[in-house]
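Fold this: Sugar ABC transporter substrate-binding protein
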Amino acid sequence: MIKKWTAAALVTVLSVSSLAACTKSSGDDKKERVLRIATSFGYGDENEYIRREYTELFEFANPNIKIEFIATNDDRFMYKAPGPDEKMEDPMEKLKEVMQGDNPPDIVITNFEQLPDLIESNLLAPLDPLMTKDKFDTTGIVPLVLDGIKGLSTDGKLYGLTPTFSSPALIYNKKMFADAGVDVPTDNMTWDQIFDLAQRLTQGEGADRKYGFSFSSQSYGDVFNSMSIYTNPLGLKMFDEKAEKLAVDNDQWEQAWTRLIDLQKQNILPGPPDQRNQNLREDPNEYNPFAYDDFLSGRVAMTIINYYDLTRINNANKNATNIKGFTPIEWDIATVPSHADAPGVVANINMSGVLGINTKAGNVDDAWKLIKFINGEDWAKLRANSSGQMVSRKDHIKPKAGMEYHIEAFYNVKPSVVQNEFNKFYRTIPNIWAVQDLARNEFQAAVQGTKSVRDALKSWQTNGDMMLQQMRENPNGPIDMGMFRGNAVAVPAG
């Protein structure tokens, strides 16, 4: 064991030493300098996560550069709920404030969906001149990342880079397709094509029901929970820009809801958790580790998974002999389907660590040095096997150990600009999640036929606007759901 550990440690040291050698450039390297970094996430001046993920190797390679972190998150309420007169600061507004302050950060690390705000506010410097000067090669970066970030700017310039990303893919059970005599899905299919396949694969009744497709492999999910996978690539937003009103009473939302509701009415997509779990009752004396996993239980032929889900699926197959009644699943993946009006655009692509240079940076040289360092080939090679995400350099994206699959499906897509809107507003409107509870009730009313789809959306719009007004007047107070659903239920803040 000690020999193995020593060997692994030696490989790591040699790899880091190689990286360090790649960063040496001039006699100025021995001069002590400070590089200031601000983020829109994380807590504390010494952000351990950011240091571990983004700067640790760089600091090892450049001991003369001292990293300083600037906190922008409001950590006053980590251990207590805000009082009636207290308001949590918006981390993005705080970030924009410090970027323009007297001692501004050189680098900002932010999320993909937050970049447009910083670009439109002229707070980020384009990286193109620096890349040209250093002949920094971007041809190996997957277009999902490079073109995705570049597409956020109106001038076509690149205002940030990220060394890692995660994205979804469509996984399918080869045997279920073969048994049904149906061709397996391929890349670049539309949602309508996938739904057509799902209809051909769906069969059986009750506990024996087999579905062709589900938005989630977990049986505690349902169509409503996963709706953003379908609606976000269409550019459908739930709120206006300041979350003062909803934006759902329109033809686009009606068309999207109608399509999904029709599929659920036809029982082609799995129904709500309560309805389905009634059919999933297992023998309480017999342990089934996949009781609530529709894909591993063979109840669903196709579903959406993330990169990290593959480890769980691979482990299940490797331990099949230890799992009673489980047969290893032969599977592969294809790209997540997209809409004909937005080909290749998919939701839930995560680029949570995009690095950009502040227009007011005092140390541009070292800022670019760090960005270049962790977006280069050597860093990608070192981190490719240790990251829970995929590295952005295509040559180092390989299938996980022991598996063979169409890994290109994870990155041959484009990111949806509309991301999780709740992430944008929940810090300043802690109760905003309650608006979605209203939508769930209206969606089910439309499924059951007690309301038309448009009437359900109108009701959600009207009651949602009233709820948002209540939240603005009393951000930290409880929400009286009785005003909207006829039964007084207080939703606590936070």
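The radius of gyration is 25 Å. The CA atoms of residues 233 and 416 lie 5 Å apart.
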